[in-house]
């Protein structure tokens, strides 16, 4: 069953969807809207958003999520980023949830960020260590037991 489109009057991205503030629109569908980021971290940095006001990914009805990734794919191809092989230009798809996770706008958005060089585009900090395999195994069991 279709879910009602929901807007939040004070939300900057809801205002963009409604045309109340301008944007450089790229693709619009019944469920999604995409536009250029006005503070790009690399040339061609763009955003794809659901036409549904949810702050975080888990707030979205699945029908909105279903619409988004094919749009990201189309925009990736149109942006000249669909290059096979691991060398050369790459791209990151980024979706932040919560201030601690670097989310500034509380309306779900997927960034498409071209990565052409070391200095522009996404720069990732990724602290990691080798996992204890028995702890991993326990955690996997715990998580799977919560899925249904
Ligand atoms: P995040 O940190 O994941 O919440 O990213 C929010 C993004 O929205 C940033 O990259 C901003 O540059 C971008 N942004 C904020 N306001 C606008 C706007 N009016 N038009 C286009 N992009 C925007
Ligand atoms: Zn919104």
TrEMBL record:
Signal peptide: none annotated. Pfam families: HIT. CDD domains: HINT_subgroup (cd01277). A motif (Histidine triad motif) lies at residues 107-111. Its cofactor is Mg(2+). One of its GO terms (biological process) is nucleotide metabolic process. InterPro entries: HINT, Histidine_triad_CS, Histidine_triad_HIT, HIT-like, HIT-like_sf. The keyword ATP-binding does not apply. PROSITE patterns: HIT_1, HIT_2. The active site is at residue 109. PANTHER family: ADENOSINE 5'-MONOPHOSPHORAMIDASE HNT1 (PTHR46648:SF1), HIT FAMILY PROTEIN 1 (PTHR46648). Belongs to the HINT family. This is Adenosine 5'-monophosphoramidase HNT1. It comes from Pichia californica.
């Amino acid at each position: 069953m279709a879910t009602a489109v929901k807007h939040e009057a004070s939300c900057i991205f809801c205002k963009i969807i409604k045309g109340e503030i301008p944007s450089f629109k790229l693709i619009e569908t019944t469920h999604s809207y995409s536009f250029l980021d006005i503070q790009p971290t690399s040339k061609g940095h763009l955003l794809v958003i659901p036409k549904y006001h949810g702050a975080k990914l888990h707030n979205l009805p699945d029908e909105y999520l279903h619409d988004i990734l094919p749009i990201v794919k189309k925009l990736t191809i149109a942006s000249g980023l669909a290059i096979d092989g691991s060398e050369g230009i790459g791209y990151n798809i980024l979706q932040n949830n919560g201030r601690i996770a670097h989310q500034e706008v509380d309306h779900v958005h997927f960034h498409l960020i071209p990565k052409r060089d070391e200095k522009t585009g996404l720069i990732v900090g990724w602290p990691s260590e080798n996992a204890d395999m028995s702890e991993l195994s326990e955690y996997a069991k715990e998580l799977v037991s919560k899925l249904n």
